[in-house]
């Protein structure tokens, strides 16, 4: 951006909302750069008009130009798609957060299985979760815990736990706890 740029000034409030929405994401950083003060960087990244928006994935130091829409929802959708996150414009996790599509079929099979068959499906679920990496591996552990609890506490466990988590989420809790409980609730919904 440039401090004298009218379009930059009008985009600033939206930009600040985007930064606030993703502040809890450890792998997402939203930053702005005064191109007048840092002409060397502006030149390096081909900034010739303002505002210029760039996305820098971890493995791409050159960055890529952002040419999508300029409202909050457009930015949030773009960052979610590129970063594998699931946030809304207010920074809350969406109902898709934590869901691992590759486990869907196994979870359905687990839920439909008789008590005797559940152990075999659970073993396959553990095997698949063992192959996951990054945040998916962390979410996979929640799947395993949910499946174990379902076997130990019966078919009604997931529904009761979702209701309990929802009551907690309606209270005043920290953003980190809210994220944690939302992830658990989303994953448990696959078992309900």
From TrEMBL:
Name of the featured protein: protein disulfide-isomerase
Source organism superkingdom: Eukaryota
Gene Ontology cellular component list: endoplasmic reticulum
Gene Ontology biological process terms in this record: protein folding
Keywords (A to Z) from UniProt: Disulfide bond, Isomerase, Redox-active center, Signal
GO molecular function: protein disulfide isomerase activity
InterPro entries found in the cross-reference section: ERp29_C (IPR011679), ERp29_C_sf (IPR036356), PDI (IPR051063), PDI_thioredoxin-like_dom (IPR005788), Thioredoxin-like_sf (IPR036249), Thioredoxin_domain (IPR013766)
Thioredoxin domain boundaries: 1-84
Provenance organism: Viola biflora (Yellow wood violet)
PROSITE patterns in alphabetical order: THIOREDOXIN_2
Substrates-to-products reaction catalysed: Catalyzes the rearrangement of -S-S- bonds in proteins
Family: Belongs to the protein disulfide isomerase family.
